[in-house]
Amino acid sequence: MTSRTTPRFRAAFLCLPAPIRQRARHAYRLFLQNPMAKLDPEREAHKAWLGLVQPVGLVVSPPALLKAQVVLDNNVVPVQQALQAVVVRPAYVFLDADPVLLDFPRFTTEVLGWSLDDLAGAPGGPPLPEALGVALPDYGETLLPSYVVVDAMSEGQVLLLVQVVDRVPLDDKPSPEEARKNSWPASPQARFERLLRETGVPAGLLLNGNELRLVYAPRGESSGHMGFPIAAMCTVSGRPLLGALHMLLSEHRVFSAPDKQRLLDLLVESRKYQNDVSNRLAEQVLGALWELLGGFQAADEAAKS
After folding, report:
1. How far apart are CA 129 and CA 147, in angstroms?
2. Left (φ > 0), alpha (ψ -120 to 50) or beta: where does 164 sit?
3. Burial environment of residue 103 by CB neighbours within 10 A (0 to 12, 13 to 18, 19 or more)
4. Which letter does DSSP use for residue 213 in this model?
5. Where are the beta strands (DSSP E) in the chain?
6. Distance CA 261, CA 269 (A)
7. d(Cα 28, Cα 51) in Å, to the nearest integer?
8. Strand 134-136 with 141-143, pairing
């Protein structure tokens, strides 16, 4: 291959079938000519913000975003100014407190551009649908969403559930004191996932004031979620996070984008893409394995002759 390869490696390489040697040489020459040729700036931008939020499980994937022509907007200064006007800073005596998001309905209208009709249960919005409660008879309680995102243009179709909880870690089980208030001693994340699965609404938003989390938990599949820290999005360095959040939850993306380009479509397509990639990768690995075994057999026969 090159002068840096060992004689033993070159001898083994020459024993491989000719088609494999030809493809390997061609791929290596292309790499030497331009190793960065296949880097897509938009794909890299999506990979960058996903690296910042560190999703747990699969929520959205860069290929699905690119296929839907979803582009990250870097000019989010007006969005950040709107967010800073909505958040509040709790009063502390000795330290400056981080900003928190307590008014979710105001956030949706002033930052995301939603209308009042889009959020059931909010002041000025439609009433909460009655059929979205999940009874837990063993614990003597019923899980209910705080708000419901509906599509007023599609006869009130339910798009997302929203759960606003106290300022507690979303993945921690409640303390003994809190457990007395909620009979089921589960974390806010676990409670919300159960609400999504049993109502058949696959996606929703979970907010504790410090973090806004997009959760995807379709029935029969593993769940995934990604969190956007409120305080970070109010800073200059957090603008990529805010840009990603606005890209996913803006009025256009949730309600009015063309078919196959809305938020729920992106979540579904990301799972489909993962399955397709897994199947293709399995086929490629199996094919490469058979070719490698053929190469070993050819090398063994050559060594015996």
Report:
1. 9
2. beta
3. middle
4. E
5. 119-120, 134-136, 141-143, 147-151, 157-164, 203-207, 211-216, 224-229
6. 10
7. 29
8. antiparallel
Rounded Cα distance between 268 and 260, Å, is 9
DSSP for residue 98: P
How far is residue 33's CA from residue 55's CA, in Å, rounded to a whole number?
A: 35
The size of the chain, in residues, is 305
**DSSP summary character for residue 22:** H
Q: How far apart are CA 47 and CA 282, in angstroms?
A: 23
**d(Cα 196, Cα 145) in Å, to the nearest integer?**
9
Determine the residue type at 58: L
Task: Print burial letters for 121-153: b (CB count within 10 Å at least 16), e (below 16).
Answer: bbeebbebeeebebebeeeeeebebbbbbbbee
Cα distance between residue 57 and residue 171, in whole Å: 14
Q: Where are the domains of the chain?
A: 1-38, 74-257
Residues with Cβ < 8 Å from 100, sequence gap 6 or more? Answer: 87, 88, 89, 90, 167, 209, 210, 230, 231
Q: What is the pLDDT along the chain (305 residues), one digit of tens a residue?
A: 444 556 666 676 677 777 777 777 776 666 566 555 456 889 999 999 999 999 999 999 999 999 999 999 989 999 999 999 999 987 765 566 899 999 999 999 999 999 999 999 999 999 998 889 999 998 888 999 999 999 988 888 999 999 999 989 999 988 776 666 657 889 999 999 999 999 999 999 999 999 999 999 999 999 999 999 999 999 999 999 999 999 999 999 999 999 999 999 999 999 998 754 443 443 444 445 445 555 555 555 656 66
> How far is it, in rounded angstroms, from Cα 196 to Cα 204?
7
Whole-number Å distance between alpha carbons of 14 and 110 = 66
What does the radius of gyration of the chain's CA atoms come to, in whole angstroms?
26
User: Contacts for 275-283 with beta carbons within 8 Å, 24 or more apart?
Assistant: 277/63
Cβ contacts of residue 107 below 8 Å, gap of 6+? 83, 86, 101
